[in-house]
Amino acid sequence: MDDRERRERHRRLWEADHRHLWHPFTQMRDWLREEPLIVDAAEGVHLVDTLGNRYLDGVSSLWCNVHGHRVPELDAAVRAQLERVAHSTLLGLASTASIECAEELVRHLPSGLTRVFFSDAGATAVEIAIKMAFQHHQLRGDERRTEFVALHGGYHGDTLGSVSVGGIDLFHRIFKPLLFDVHHAPQPYCYRCPLGKALPGCGMACADEVERILAAREGRVAALVVEPLVQGADGMITQPPGYLRRLRELCDRHGALLVCDEVATGWGRTGTTFAVEQEGVLPDILTMAKGLTGGYLPLAATVTTEQVFESFLGEHAEKRTFFHGHTYAGNPLACAAATASMTLFRERGVGAAVPAKAAALARALAPAARLPHVGEVRQRGLMVGIELVRDRATKEEYAYALQAGHRVILEARKLGAILRPLGNVVVLMPPLAMTEAELTRLAGITLAAIEAATARL
Ligand SMILES: Cc1ncc(COP(=O)(O)O)c(C=O)c1O
């Protein structure tokens, strides 16, 4: 394709996009004013657009990609599965690919989590966790345990159950009349502590608030739902060490299940395969999606213990069945990709390389401390949030309408990296496969983009 043909094709696609597509989480009036960056191909940790430009995939194509794009082992696994069967159902039938995937998955899970319920998105995985926890208590005769506790700033997906346990006002407030009531506790957001306290003197007062709710609702709470170590979508809010362990103790003390949503943190992002490992915590239910297939195909899993599983067992007529399922649950193509991805984790030590890479990224981001409009850099493994502020001393935020984060990512594109902000937080969540040199380049582009964009705000 010569340059003219490439431009014409780009123009045609641009027009068709603007005519027909409605993009998620996007103000479409803004979108229709701008020329879209249209991803056409990928190679390793780079995305290539319709005009032939290459960009570092700085957010792993929405926190999914793990080993890079077009990985020979994953491509081969999906192709081989295509030669057998693209889809068959898990309702009333088993399938080779889903069995092998579940078996491999359990090898990677914290010991004690042995049952895998497949679905196709992070939101469905959480929806399942909520219903599973609820029904578990009902089946055990604990019928008063119908309530849920979650954190402000939590994000668990966009279906109504997941939104109910979510806690981001901007996304969730409008749907309030459609949601079930959830008790929300203050989030451990130390840079802007909602309780106006500071570590270590506070003694993690925010965790005390969780306890206060559990005690006030004694015997009524089915589960506490949290993102472990990092609340991703609220701006990479990192939790202090010991916080998650404390939540586990509180759940044990008050008889609630602990649901850890590892849709974002799972598969090596925080430096261990699952974030809960760093706190020595075994959740009752753990959810995952995104990186499970290496970022190739939609597959999610809600995993749990034999104890929870067994409460659903009974004679057919007792109707203890978990009446829940999605058509594409355990899709064989997605399962084949996941098995291949997990095999790379096991055989290549993909996760083991993360701490050194995270340290290299932290070093490359250190100059952010000198930028006048960077309030805080939060990092856990390869999850990074850089909070932009109008005034560093007062922590004054940029107004929503200014779209400070968006301006930064437009600058980053010019310099060769694709990022996606969360409000005023610039997020980096590179594929685990990025080399230290690529991570350093990504950090350099990000800081240059922040300087350029904030200079004009
Ligand atoms: C922690 C967490 N849970 C759930 C979800 C929802 O996942 P999905 O978009 O696949 O429904 C996300 C998405 O970012 C997430 O970060």
What level of helicity do the residues show? 25-40%
Bound molecules: pyridoxal-5'-phosphate
| Helical run tally | 15
User: How would you describe the shape?
Assistant: globular
Q: Give the terminus-to-terminus CA distance.
A: 40 Å
**Rg (C-alpha, Å):** 22 Å
Enzyme class: transferase
Site (Participates in the substrate recognition with KAPA and in a stacking interaction with the adenine ring of SAM): 25
Main location: cytoplasm
InterPro entries: Aminotrans_3, BioA, PyrdxlP-dep_Trfase, PyrdxlP-dep_Trfase_major, PyrdxlP-dep_Trfase_small
Explain how this protein is built.
Its main location: cytoplasm. One of its GO terms (molecular function) is pyridoxal phosphate binding. The modification N6-(pyridoxal phosphate)lysine is found at residue 290. Substrate binds at residues 155, 290, 325, 420. Catalyzes the transfer of the alpha-amino group from S-adenosyl-L-methionine (SAM) to 7-keto-8-aminopelargonic acid (KAPA) to form 7,8-diaminopelargonic acid (DAPA). It is the only aminotransferase known to utilize SAM as an amino donor. The protein is an alpha/beta fold and 457 residues long. It folds into 2 domains: 37-66 and 351-455, Aspartate Aminotransferase, domain 1 (Alpha-Beta Complex), CATH 3.90.1150.10; 74-348, 3-Layer(aba) Sandwich (Aspartate Aminotransferase, domain 2), CATH 3.40.640.10. 37% of the residues lie in helices and 15% in strands. The chain contains 15 helices and 16 strands. It has helices at 3-20, 28-33, 60-63, 72-82, 96-108, 122-139, 160-165, 169-172, 205-216, 243-254, 306-310, 332-348, 354-365, 404-415, 436-455; strands at 39-43, 46-49, 54-57, 115-119, 147-151, 182-185, 221-226, 230-231, 237-238, 257-261, 285-288, 300-304, 374-380, 383-388, 417-418, 425-428. It has a 7-stranded mixed β-sheet with strand order 4-12-11-10-7-5-6, sandwiched between helices. Helix 5 (96-108) packs parallel to helix 12 (332-348), helix 9 runs parallel beside helix 10 (243-254) and helix 14 (404-415) packs across helix 15 (436-455). It is globular. The mean pLDDT is 98. It binds pyridoxal-5'-phosphate (PLP). Residues 121-123, 126, 155-157, 227, 232-233, 261, 263-264, 289 line the site of pyridoxal-5'-phosphate. Pyridoxal-5'-phosphate binds at residues 121-123, 126, 155-157, 227, 232-233, 261, 263-264, 289.
